[in-house]
UniProtKB/TrEMBL annotation:
Phylogenetic placement of the source organism: Archaea, Methanobacteriati, Methanobacteriota, Stenosarchaea group, Halobacteria
Organism: Halogranum rubrum
Stored InterPro entries: Hvo_1808-like (IPR047792)
Region feature (Disordered): 26-78
Protein name: Lipoprotein
Compositional bias of kind Low complexity: 47-59
Superkingdom: Archaea
Pro residues bias spans: 30-46
Length: 497
């Protein structure tokens, strides 16, 4: 599926049946309440900087804000992380205020992350309209053109999130136009923030911290490196579970310091966007924000267990699945191959080598969640999405009986002229896991009016998902074949013959 995410900070709210609307922490607003009690991460002596950082210097008690003789953690652009600054955003930032605000924010990111900025970071301020026009957000650019877009549409359709009448690119465009407050561009040492008054900008406090963490990641690990460009949706979400999770974790620690220790620059409430939710596909939004919630708890668990050195190691050996981000468990993924047995003109796409994408546990959860939200088909209990089973940093819960126990999956789109279809094979840890998934999937079909027309075969006659489906469970494996008609199913895959 999809190059789902770039390195963005997203503010959002989703509606959950039986619950009031809930907001995300990416980025958080300036704090006023007392934070919940949390356990303290691994002590500072164990938070060893990597080889590109410098050591902390001793500050003079007579003049604690004197500039150091050499660059050091916690001091940037002439400002210490705890140095008072005279900045008021109520009427926007002057150039001098902006320099002080950004400089001290960089110093605070260094202090919290225990790493050193080694290059300057350029901060650009644009209106929302200028920001939306500058760069598509929400997807990694594949440069595959119409062929890639068509392939990608089939993956989102397989998840019953974007139907044949809509386009995933439109869903991402709407997200960027409505919700994104900032974006860092790897390799450019530049981040953009959104403000209604760029000549006297208001810069959301937590957005700035979040994006500066991405700038620091880029300088320390090179976010443009090939390992940060996994080919599948699940891999991309897992990567973002680390990169976005780390940015959110540092931002959360910053918010806590603002409440207890630091004087922080307030962001006027009027700077927050008021999203037009009628334009948003909340299934897509819930997929996009998964790394921000689960990733924060994942990074917190890594730091508490083994310190920041373990986060450094994770950047060298990225998590491979959302299962790992959700459950903090080993993500050794068993090999899965889907044989190409198409005939009569049906063929795979020349994308990702085998023409396949991997949805993964998080996207499968959203597939089931979205059926209740959008179509009134309560396949899973949607209210549990706001449960914090993982503690203070676990903002949302992406677990459900039919999506847990994931082993691997492959979605393989097919084409024949203007016709489309796909094969989706998933493997599960146990036969019971496979049974729960297959039964939930059949409830999804039923919610769209599917009728049984033969052994293991269903047809949705009307609507945006109108197609034929072959669904069978074989031990720990579930197989779905989709095509325009029942006759097409056997031509697309031998599974349906």
């Amino acid at each position: 599926m999809t190059r789902t995410l770039t390195v963005v900070a997203v503010a959002f709210a989703l509606l959950v049946a039986g619950c009031s609307s809930f907001g995300g922490d990416a980025p958080a607003t300036d704090p006023t309440p007392t934070p919940e009690p949390i356990s303290t991460p691994t002590p500072t002596p164990d938070l060893t900087p990597n080889s590109t950082t410098t050591t902390t210097v001793t500050r003079s008690s007579d003049d604690p804000y004197a500039d150091p003789t050499s660059d050091t953690i916690g001091w940037e652009d002439g400002y210490w992380y705890d140095e008072p600054i005279d900045v008021d955003q109520s009427d926007g930032l002057t150039d001098a205020e902006r320099r002080a605000y950004v400089g001290r924010s960089k110093a605070r990111v260094e202090e919290l992350r225990r790493q050193e900025f080694v290059r300057d970071v350029r901060v650009e301020v644009l209106t929302r309209e200028e920001f939306a026009a500058r760069e598509p957000v929400g997807t990694d650019e594949d440069d595959g053109g119409p062929e890639y877009d068509r392939w990608n549409e089939q993956v989102w359709e397989a998840l019953f999130i974007v139907d044949e009448r809509d386009e995933i690119s439109t869903a991402f465009d709407s997200l960027g136009e409505s919700l994104v407050l900032g974006q860092y561009f790897p390799g450019e040492d530049a981040l953009l923030v959104v403000s209604d008054t760029p000549e006297r900008p208001v810069i959301d406090n937590a957005t700035l911290i979040h994006e500066l963490v991405h700038a620091l990641q880029d300088q320390q690990y090179n976010l443009s490196a090939p390992r940060y460009d996994p080919p599948t949706q699940d891999g991309q979400l897992a990567r973002n579970g680390l990169t976005e999770g780390e940015a959110e974790y540092v931002t959360d620690r910053y918010v806590e310091q603002c409440v207890t220790e630091w004087d922080c620059v307030a962001t006027p409430a009027s700077n927050r966007p008021t999203p037009d939710y009628s334009r948003l596909n909340l299934g897509v939004v819930l997929v996009v924000v998964q790394p921000y919630g689960d990733g924060t708890a994942y990074v917190h668990s890594v730091v508490e267990r083994d310190g920041w050195e373990a986060v450094d190691a994770a950047h060298e050996n990225l998590p491979q699945s959302t299962e790992r981000i959700i459950h903090h468990a080993d993500d050794a993924i068993p090999t899965l191959t889907v044989p190409d047995t198409a005939r009569n003109g049906w063929e795979r796409y020349d994308i990702n080598g085998d023409g396949a994408d991997t949805a993964g546990e998080a996207s499968m959860y959203v597939m089931f969640w979205y059926q209740g939200y959008q179509y009134g088909n309560e396949v899973v209990d949607r209210s549990t999405v706001v449960e914090r089973d993982g503690g203070r940093y676990d903002t949302y819960n992406y677990t459900s009986p039919p999506s847990q126990g994931w082993g691997n999956d492959k979605i393989v789109p097919y084409k024949k002229g203007e016709q489309d279809g796909y094969v989706w094979v998933s493997t599960w840890d146990t036969e019971e896991d496979a049974r729960e998934f297959s039964e939930a999937y059949l409830r999804v079909l039923d919610g769209h009016g599917a009728e049984s027309v033969g052994e293991s075969t269903w047809v949705i006659a009307d609507g945006g998902f109108a197609d034929a489906f072959y669904v069978v469970r074989d031990g720990r494996q579930v197989i779905v074949v989709n095509g325009p008609t029942v006759d097409d199913l056997s031509d697309i895959s031998e599974y349906a013959r």
